Structures are given as structure tokens and as C-alpha cells.
Amino acid sequence: MDLLHFTHIFFVGSWLGTVAVEAVIEWRAAKDQKIQVLGRWHYYIDLFVEIPTFTIVLFTGILLTLKIPFFDTIIVSKIILGLIPVFVNI
Fold first, then answer.
1. Is-contact 62 42, C-beta < 8 A?
2. Cβ(34)–Cβ(10) under 8 Å?
3. By C-alpha distance, which of 90, 88, 86, 87 is closest to 11?
4. What is the longest distance spanned by two Cα atoms in the chain?
5. 3-state secondary structure labels for all residues of 15-56
6. Which of 29, 54, 79, 83 is 20 to 30 Å from 11 at the Cα level?
7. What contacts 28, CB < 8 A, 6 or more positions away?
8. pTM score, two decimals?
């Protein structure tokens, strides 16, 4: 596995972890309406962790796509399935 693949997989995992943390924060904030600090944490997590992470995932995915010599059905389906969470997150 080269550095580009490792970087892509590492940041995909980081992004999933960030989304999981945000889900817990939202669940906790919904449970206790008095906690407004959690809303600020969510904003800063989005700004400084999630946005850079999914941007790196997007760019490493583009670089990996450019390295593919030919496209078949499996590659195209992987690209489409990879782009869905990126555009949902935007």
C-alpha cells in the first residue's frame, strides 16, 4: 500500500470517527436542552476537524481516480458510492 492509499484510508476512518462524535454530541444536546456549549463544540469540530478531513478524503480520492488506467463498473460504482457521503456532508 502506497502513501496515497494509506492517507485516503486513514482520513476516511478519521472522518467516520468525527461523524460518530458529532452524533453523540447532537444526541446529548437533544437530551438536555440547557447545554448550549455542545452547539459551539459541534461548530468548532465541523470547522477545524470535519471540513479539513473530508476535503483531504475528496482530494486523495481524486488523485487515486487519476491513477486508474481504465474504468469498469466496479470502479465507477466505488466512485459514486464515495462521492455520496461527501456531497451529503456539504
1. no
2. no
3. 86
4. 55
5. HHHHHHHHHHHHHHHHHCCCCCHHHHHHHHHHHHHHHHHHHH
6. 29
7. 35, 38
8. 0.83
Q: What is the pLDDT of residue 65?
A: 92
pLDDT at 87 over 90: no
Place of cell 491513477: 67
Residue 67 has pLDDT above 80, yes or no: yes
- CB 8 within 8 Å of CB 61: yes
Do 86 and 54 meet the contact criterion of CB atoms below 8 Å apart?
yes
The Cα 15–Cα 9 span in angstroms is 10
Give the length of the chain: 90
User: For residue range 1-51, what is the model confidence (pLDDT) as tens digits?
Assistant: 899 999 999 999 999 999 998 888 888 777 776 677 777 788 899 999 999
What is the rounded end-to-end Cα distance, in angstroms, of the chain? 29
Residue with cell 492517507: 7
